[in-house]
Design a protein that fits this description.
It is a single chain. By secondary structure, this protein is an alpha/beta fold. The chain has helices spanning 11-31, 34-42, 44-57, 59-62, 70-77, 81-93, 109-112, 123-129, 132-138, 141-147, 152-156, 160-166, 168-184, 186-192, 210-218, 230-233, 236-242, 278-291, 313-324, 332-340; strands at 97-99, 105-107, 200-204, 223-228, 249-253, 266-270, 297-305, 330-331, 344-351, 356-363. A hairpin with a 5-residue loop joins strand 1 and strand 2. The two termini are 36 Å apart.
């Protein structure tokens, strides 16, 4: 399964740690001169590209079997030894790799997440966010802010989702990146919400079924329906059979702008609504409202922006949505109003220790 089912720390503890971390960061910004604090933020982009270079070179994979010196690591990655040393002196200073007293480089917990063969790997996420297309889009943030429109159509001649469907190498990297990000929230999600209360669960836009198969493995009395575009779910039946879930999960294909499977007790939309403009998102919700039973529950799994000014991952992702797909992140009140306009009532919001929340929604 996608997750290693590790123990999830209590939400209260993580909230205290988050508060302390944000307080210390805020104190640092107030104590140093403003231009120094700003410069530190500016060069943070260099670190992002350095991490991308390490992932693209396969440095973490080359260290999977044990420590190596610079010459050995350069040969294993096909890199210039001096240039690789210069890259790693930045990354080791931030704890992403470590260098021992004998000069050999080793993996750290962060570097482990750059390996391609770990249960929770962010390698594909790093490669996607550092890809030329993604970097190019972000250089046009000023255009997106001026116009309020996504930049992809002008730059690529088509929408983001059409582009990654056409360029399958990039599209498959994007799919893997989104799957790897999704695995980070798996344990927090199951720690916070009981999916076993539903008999038939429909995962709308569920991709290859990573979330749904995890749900079914933990809730043996539930059945599932995986729904996504035909090309997305084409290989899903074979995967379900491999996992021993073929008798409890069916696969249907189509566009959620037009239809969704009927007869579900719960309908999951995980990181779907935030991908689309208000009009498109309302179209998706209208389809759900027309097709799902009156007594069914809609479960939106999304980031929810805080109402205050504290740092939050959703504020980064909100700009990502603006630049690339024209979607947006929302606060709880914005979701409540948005859902009401689409014929739904937000019953409750269930936070997790990850940035994700479960929005439990029912037809009005």
């Amino acid at each position: 399964m996608a997750s290693n089912r590790s123990k999830v720390p209590p939400q209260a503890l993580l909230r205290v740690i988050e508060f302390a971390r944000n307080s210390m960061a805020g104190l640092h910004r107030r104590l140093v001169p403003g231009h120094i604090a700003l410069l530190e933020m500016i060069v943070a982009g260099f670190l992002t590209q350095a991490i991308h270079a390490a992932a693209a070179l396969g440095v973490a994979d080359a260290l999977a079997d044990g420590p190596r010196n610079g010459a050995e690591l350069a040969r294993a990655t096909g890199a210039n030894e001096d240039a690789l040393h210069r890259l790693l002196q930045l990354l080791t200073s931030h704890g992403i790799f470590a260098r021992r007293s004998d000069g050999k480089y080793t993996l750290t917990p962060m570097a482990q997440a750059l390996r391609r063969d770990t249960s929770v790997s962010l390698r594909d996420t790093v490669l996607f966010f550092g890809s030329p297309m993604h970097r190019n889009h972000w250089t046009h943030l000023v255009d997106a802010v001026r116009t309020g429109e996504t930049v992809g159509t002008d730059l690529d001649g088509m929408s983001f989702f059409d582009y990654v469907r056409k360029d399958r190498e990039l599209g498959e990297l994007f799919d893997r990146a989104m799957t790897s990000i999704g695995t980070l929230a798996t344990e927090p999600l199951f720690a916070a919400y009981d999916f076993g209360q539903y008999g038939t669960i429909v995962d709308v836009g569920g991709g290859q079924g990573t979330l749904l198969t995890e749900i079914l493995s933990r809730t043996p009395t539930s059945r599932g329906i995986l729904f996504d575009l035909p090309e997305v779910v084409a290989s899903a039946p074979a995967r379900l059979a491999e996992l021993g879930l073929a008798d409890r999960c069916t696969v249907e294909s189509g566009s959620f702008f037009e239809t969704v499977p009927k007869g579900g007790d719960a309908y999951i939309l995980k990181h779907i609504i935030h991908d689309w403009s208000d009009d498109k998102a309302k179209q998706i919700l209208h389809t759900l409202r027309e097709q799902m039973p009156e007594d069914a529950t809609l479960l939106l799994i999304e980031l929810v922006l805080p109402e205050d000014n504290r740092p939050h991952p959703g504020k980064f992702i909100d700009l990502e949505m603006l630049i690339n797909v024209g979607g947006r992140e929302r606060t709880e009140d914005q979701y409540r109003d948005f859902l009401a306009a689409s014929g739904f009532t937000l019953v409750r919001r269930i936070p997790t220790v990850a940035p994700d929340n479960v929005l439990e929604v029912r037809p009005s």
